[in-house]
């Protein structure tokens, strides 16, 4: 009797251990569930058939995978490439609208003291699709009264310079660094000879306007008229004499250009009126732009 009981007990123990092959795997993968199962009497199980050699058992836990996915940080979109982030050239209609909106902003600007002493702000004017843009330092007496750039004696000389290049005023764009008239005596704006160059503070306040205009028009060439405009637009600029005679890549502080723009420095027309002997040197500078654009102006 005792031997029979031992045999039955040994057989039951062998069956029980075979059944633990599955329970042991489940316990390792999901301890909490195994703990619950252990607390209850487990029903008798038949041993599982052995897996054929060379095969593997894949067990998925969808609820655990879902919890891991919820806990994972959200994926951020890939940063835009430099190509997609670069601004695009505007159409003629878009340029016209953007410049008109910017002009309205300039006309109501009071960011610096010039805004309270001017008669008229002078945003600029010309062809929105111009290949060449002329940039001076600031409006003078006549410009302050008409609200247009380069309309006094210096402007008449600039018109002749433009025609000599084989262009017309209507084919180029003309603007200034400062958009309001800098005066030596702001209390008497009616005085003639009351002009001065804009100071660093005034240039800093107006810089974003001229830079925005250049980025909208995006000419092929900018001609900086005079040392003030040249030093404001050309990085690490020295004297006008040191800057003349070569093209520079134009880099702006507040905007990114849709395409490369070259800048050339030459004399301001007002300086040429005071020093007629410099006109020959200024003509050499303008011929550099003409050669680049293939213009057939009057050569002397």
Main attributes?
6-stranded mixed sheet; alpha/beta; 8% strand; elongated; 13 helices; 300 residues; single chain
State the helicity in percent bands. Answer: 40-55%
**Category by helix and strand content:** alpha/beta
Quick check: average pLDDT? 82
Shape: elongated
Main β-sheet, spatial strand arrangement: 1-3-2-4-6-5
Major sheet details: 6 strands, mixed
Amino-to-carboxy terminus distance: 135 Å
Q: Estimate the strand proportion.
A: 5-15%
By DSSP (H or I, 4+ residues per run), the number of helices equals 13
Low-confidence stretches: 17-42, 54-60, 78-84
* Count of β-strands: 6
Helix/strand order:
HHHHHHEEHHEHEHHEEHH
Radius of gyration (CA) equals 40 Å
Oligomer: single chain
What would you say this structure looks like, in words?
- With 300 residues, the chain is of the alpha/beta class.
- It is built from 13 helices and six strands.
- It has helices spanning 2-29, 31-38, 62-71, 82-85, 92-107, 114-117, 141-146, 153-164, 200-217, 227-233, 240-243, 269-274, 279-293; strands at residues 125-126, 132-136, 173-176, 221-225, 248-249, 262-266.
- The protein has a six-stranded mixed β-sheet with strand order 1-3-2-4-6-5, with helices on both faces.
- Helix 1 (2-29) runs antiparallel to helix 2 (31-38) and helix 5 runs antiparallel to helix 9.
- It is elongated and about 130 Å long.
- Mean pLDDT is 82; it is low at 17-42, 54-60 and 78-84.
